[in-house]
Amino acid sequence: MNTTNQVNNQFIDLDFDAKHLWHPYTSMNNALPTYGVVSAEGVELTLNNGTKLIDGTSSWWACVHGYSHPKIVAAMQHQTAQLSHVMFGGITHRPAVELARMLVDMTSERLTKVFLADSGSIAVEVAMKMALQYWQGRNNPNKQKILTVKSGYHGDTFAAMSVCDPEGGMHTMFGELVTEQLFAPEPKARFTECFDAEELQSISNMLEDNHQQIAAVLIEPIMQGAGGMRFYHAEYLSALRKLCDKYDVLLILDEIATGFGRTGKLFAYEHANVEADILCLGKALTGGYISLAATMCSDEVAQGVSDSPAGVFMHGPTFMGNPLACTAAIASLELINEQHWQTQVSSIESQMKTELAEAVDYTNVVDVRVLGAVGVLEMKSTLNTAALQQQFVDLGVWIRPFSNLIYIMPPYTISSCQLTQLTSAMKAVAKQISLPSNDTNFISHG
Predict the structure, then answer these.
(1) 254 labelled catalytic
(2) Which of 29, 35, 242, 272 could be stapled to 238 by a disulfide with Cβ–Cβ 3.0 to 4.6 Å?
């Protein structure tokens, strides 16, 4: 790729980037190739050499309305000229108030309090701190552990790392610096299969034996995202809510990846008809236009936190309640509330089920699964991300595999033709991997 090409007079020095800029989950000794993007519109990214790619990732699952949406752009431009940032300590503003009102109205009745932070990982940190302070306010300071399930992912900051998969996850190298939490086996029954209540026995036993030390159970509802793109049965979540009530433990639901329609419901917990005590939101909250997250809780949790020895909730990010981000979120949620997402996601799901079905017969494909606007091909072996990334770029799409998964989470605004280009690329690459002569090219060997 020519590192000096430019489009619209936007030069990107990819050589300087490779030498000095650290990208997510990459080595500075042997960095993965990067592709310069100069603009984006609708569901297409334009590279610095003029190539256009259909984005199959929604920029890490966030850009649900596509790029350069006029409603969100206009709202942000107006807010930037008026009030782009102001400290939230002792000050409030209309965007924060209106966003909180929208979130309270659209989530479950129990969730009445809103803490606005600046990233998904921090939303999880805030939720965990809320749970610990709640029990201090209820004169039960021994409740300091979080129970979660394996194959989960909740972020890269230290508290969030402690509740990610401790064996197969991304954070095993930090050892004793990461707080030791409690892990039950991951849910087994698939979303579309029959549910066997016996699989709850392990987590039920852990709650019975350790509830006096457990502050909360934390879980991604219905879909485990970066831990493996696994869709589990709604009955598991429903039963887990009952177990939390039985053993007097809070339930924290991490909807950062699943919230705002991604799984076919506005929030994934609706599949199980349950309510959280604490709810984490992010990613699609602003439509992917600027970083913002929210942690919501019940009146009961807020009261317990406020009754703790500190008397206040001990967290306050500099960019908490940022007016520019809140404005983007309001515009995004107004688009969500127009209800077009339901038709869009349903159509995406139906088309992906039809078009990806044949891949189950490919030699190296273990499983094909689709839920809402999420489509996954699970391969037998860990993939060579760099090699496959180039393959997808050559096919005119942006699909970024990880581990042994080729997956897409496209913007809801994608056309049927564009979606077919994504699914066709997925099948073409998966089929090529399945040829014995290509194993060494596309399979990672450590």
Answers:
(1) yes
(2) 272
